[in-house]
Amino acid sequence: MTEKEKSMEDQLNEDKALEAKEAEDKAQADAEKEKAKKSQKRWYIVHTYSGYENKVKVNLEKRIEYMNMADKIFRIEVPQKTVTQLKGGKKQEREEKIFPGYVLVEMIMDEDSWYVVRHTSGVTKFVGSAKRPIPARDSEIKKIINRSSSTSQKIELDVKAGDKVRITSGPFADFIADIIEVYPDKSKLRANVSIFGRETPVELEYKQINKL
User: Distance between CA atoms of 30 and 19, rounded to whole angstroms?
Assistant: First the structure.
């Protein structure tokens, strides 16, 4: 190898080493930038006009895209749960909002991101003072989102005290019962069942009965 070729090879190796160092520095800078961004990312609660929660979510998502704010506004959640209604012996499911009138927004708060969210159609204000929105606790947000994504269902039944129902499962299956009390929050009720000629009160779940 000539002296000139050796010099060119040395220069090539130096260039490769420099490129590798620059790539490593850039990766480290990007990682630090991402870490700093995550430390600023918080959840905020936005108040909306009643019934506008889903519209606000759609409108805000469009504004984020149009105004190039995806690096500051990350997620919009409208917490909901599935409600099962039993009417006339038929099961119907619908989505019910856990916190009507509120939308959750994960974002980095600054003047630009505040403006985009606050001036979205249907939004009335951030939770907090007028000048300083207060971020929600991460633990509270996790509970809300977990509750929203839970597979458990709230069951509603159009029955009341005095109605007759047929028990469909459990030890009293096929018995006719007279409702005494209804507990909507627990999706349960108390009813009298005639056993050997005596009225016996039993506690039943909504899913165990059919209205007659």
Answer: 16
State which amino acid sits at residue 93.
E
Q: Is the pTM of this model over 0.85?
A: no
d(CA 199, CA 75): 55
Q: How far is residue 21's CA from residue 154's CA, in Å, rounded to a whole number?
A: 58
* CATH number listed for the domain at residues 159-211: 2.30.30.30
Q: Where in the chain is the domain with CATH 3.30.70.940?
A: 40-155
pLDDT at 52: 94
Neighbours of 136 (CB within 10 A): 18
Find the angle CA(37)-CA(39)-CA(45) to the nearest 5 degrees.
95
Q: What is the CA radius of gyration of the chain?
A: 30
> Which class for 188: exposed (0-12), middle (13-18), buried (19 or more C-beta within 10 A)?
middle
CATH classification (class only), 40-155: alpha beta
Walk across the sheet containing 90-97 and list its strands: 90-97, 80-87, 154-157
Task: Give the separation between CA 64 and CA 89, rounded to whole angstroms.
Answer: 45
Which residues are paired to 209 by β-bridges?
Answer: 167
pLDDT at 32: 60
**CA-closest candidate to residue 103, choices 81, 82, 80, 130:** 80
